[in-house]
Write a structure and sequence with these properties.
heterodimer; A: about 375 residues; B: about 270 residues; alpha+beta; six-stranded antiparallel sheet; globular
């Protein structure tokens, strides 16, 4: 039993913009119902059915006088045809070269940038490292000089036996380095030490007051030196300041970097950077012939004082954790390294020479 | 009867306007801002949506207005109604050089798909909807975007586009390849697809882009010879401020800009 559907017919004998018609669809094919004597009854095998871009179906077939087509827009009629001829639809997909170019263009303008952004976010650590490797040491030094010149204005640098000791130990730790190091002691009661790109290392007097042996100070210095050696500041700068800093570094625009100094002032090292600085610092101590136990002991002290100590520790892994890691690393070292000669400084006298040392620090373990 | 039968006359050659004659109680809808002049007794009323009967209820009106926003038209339409006892006229002007083309929706099956912004005015009752392009490639590179305007009804509608408008009837299976962006509108029975130009050399230096729009019949298509974007870019390129560096003044800017402008016209094949 045939079903009658509405449509718009095109082809010889119909209006150029289409004539409204009704047609019957059955098992054999379709039959047009018109007042004109249209004799075509195309079998389904002759009829191509296409889904159209803006909705609707187009039925096409070759007739005796030319090609005919019926467009079906009515939603119910479309459903009827879909149910009746579920496998007959041809997809108008365009030719292969067009599809290939469409894919290429969509890939190039949408997918590829998204992939690159994703990659940059996922591997930003590695990318920052790679970029840091491309920056020459002399360039890093210039940036460091600019940054340190600004920081220096806010520091009260201390001269005397303590500064001399820090410089001596520092020189011993950095022998043969490609970086030019400068070591300073700043008058500040907080337990802190920091390194800036290019080899500027500053130790706060509060840290010297907390330490009890020169080896402990050497441990802290070794840690900071390792930050410089591994160019952690530079990497953090690249991570934080992103590509604008990168471009300025690449083109040697140090004045532009100075403008970003405030942004660079509160650089934070990642926890991975800190662990690496611990490991490399230990190696530097061993290489310089300094007893590594001082480094470990200083972490134990800080672990005991954790919570009271602000600033530095918050960005670092837990001191007790680091103490444990260092302790096991030291245990693996040959016994001779632990028996290296003690550093020849009268540390009690050096501590006494520090300006305005608060008495309370004495009681801390 | 939902549609108002209107008489019209198109004036001008390159910058046209259409004058519509309204019988008493008859109405026309115009794109906001397109009215040119109107005679006495014609009342203007700005409505939300397009004023077609399909948009009854607040939700229907909101939907209709939202669709208009998607096609880049104003949220509001203005209805011009003849409240007098005799025939009165209202005219709508085209917004840029080009042609106005009348479409009798009753003659073409009740639906026409047109480029965004092509709508100028229509008899009241013609509804403006959106037609969404389902093919990704055509939406991206076909030159018309993903959304086109759909005119539904059985009255007169007036479309406007740049340059000269050309109406062509395609027989079933007849194929016409058109530069992307030159399609103004088509019957929904026409298949709109894109085709790679065929050769990389042509794509790069032929000046037609990487793809052509392919229109396959049956049905009526309307083409424009000069898409407004093309005209605008030509005017922009020829504007003195961009060519002579006039904004900066100064000798250097003039020389530099002049040299660049000369180079640009050399590449573009401009003969000015």
């Amino acid at each position: 039993m045939p079903t009658r559907l509405p449509g718009q017919a095109f082809g010889p004998g119909f209006a150029t913009a289409g004539s409204a018609v009704e047609f019957d669809v059955g098992d054999y094919g379709l039959t047009l119902v018109t007042e004109e004597s249209f004799d075509g009854t195309p079998p389904w095998s002759d009829v191509g059915i296409t889904r159209q871009g803006y909705g609707g179906l187009l039925l096409e077939w070759p007739g005796r006088r030319g090609r005919y087509a019926i467009r079906v827009a009515d939603a119910a009629a479309v459903r009827t045809l879909e149910a009746m001829r579920p496998t007959a639809f041809t997809q108008p997909g365009g030719d292969r070269a067009t599809r290939a170019w469409v894919r290429r263009l969509i890939f190039g303008t949408v997918v590829l940038p998204l992939l690159l952004i994703g990659l940059a976010l996922w591997q930003h650590e590695r990318i920052a490292g790679w970029v840091a490797d491309q920056v020459p040491v002399a360039q890093e030094r210039r940036v460091g000089e600019l940054l340190f010149a600004r920081t220096k204005a806010q520091l009260t640098l201390v001269e005397g036996p303590a500064a001399q000791m820090v410089r001596d130990i520092g020189a011993r730790l950095t022998r043969g380095s490609t970086h030019q190091y400068e070591f300073y002691v700043a008058h500040d009661p907080s337990v802190n030490a920091f390194a800036m790109p290019g080899g500027f290392v500053v130790v706060h007097s509060g840290l010297l007051a907390l330490a009890t042996t020169p080896e402990e100070v050497a441990g802290v210095l070794a840690h900071e030196v390792s930050h410089v050696e591994n160019r952690h500041s530079l990497r953090a700068m690249i991570r934080n300041a992103g590509f604008s800093a990168l471009l300025r570094l690449a083109f040697g625009d140090t004045a532009g970097l100075l403008g970003m100094a405030d942004q660079l002032a509160d650089l934070k090292f990642s926890r991975d950077d800190e662990s690496q600085a611990d490991r490399d610092g230990l190696a530097a101590l061993v290489k310089a012939g300094i007893r590594p136990q001082g480094m470990r002991d200083f972490f134990r002290k800080m672990a005991a004082g954790e919570g009271k100590l602000p600033g530095w520790l918050s960005t670092h892994p837990g001191s007790s954790e680091r103490y444990a890691a260092l302790d096991s690393a030291i245990a693996k070292l040959p016994a001779s390294t632990g028996a290296a000669p003690v550093l020849p400084y009268d540390y009690a006298a050096i501590r006494a020479s520090l300006p305005g040392r608060p008495a309370s620090k004495e009681k801390q373990p | 009867m939902a549609m108002d039968v209107i008489d019209y006359k198109i004036y001008g050659s390159e910058m046209q306007f259409v004058e519509i004659e309204l019988d008493p109680r008859e109405s026309a809808v115009g794109e906001a801002g397109s009215m040119f002049y109107m005679e006495p007794d014609i009342e203007m009323d700005t409505i939300f949506g397009d004023g077609s009967a399909a948009q009854s209820g607040l939700l229907g009106k909101l939907m209709g207005a939202g669709k208009r926003l998607l096609t880049g038209e104003s949220l509001f339409t203005t209805v011009y109604t003849n409240q007098g006892a005799q025939k009165r006229k209202v005219a709508f002007g085209a917004p840029y050089p080009g042609k106005i083309i009348p479409i009798d929706l009753s003659q073409i099956g009740g639906t026409f798909i047109a480029q965004k912004d092509a709508f100028l005015c229509a008899a009241k009752g013609v509804s403006l909807g959106i037609a969404f392009q389902k093919k990704l490639g055509v939406g991206f590179f076909g030159g018309e975007g993903f959304i086109m305007e759909k005119l539904d009804g059985d009255g007169m509608a007036f479309l406007h586009a740049g340059g000269t408008m050309h109406k062509r009837d395609l027989a079933p299976g007849e194929v016409l390849r058109v530069d992307t962006g030159c399609l103004v509108g088509m019957q929904p029975s026409v298949e709109f697809d894109i085709q790679y130009v065929g050769k990389v050399k042509t794509a790069l230096f032929g000046g037609e882009g990487l793809f052509l729009a392919v229109l396959r019949g049956p049905g009526t298509v309307i083409l424009q010879s000069l898409p407004f974007a093309r005209l605008a870019s030509r005017i922009f390129a020829a504007a003195p401020s961009s060519k002579g560096g006039g904004g900066h003044g100064g000798e250097e800017g003039g020389i530099f800009g002049g040299a660049l402008g000369g180079l640009g016209s050399l590449i573009g094949g401009d003969d000015d």
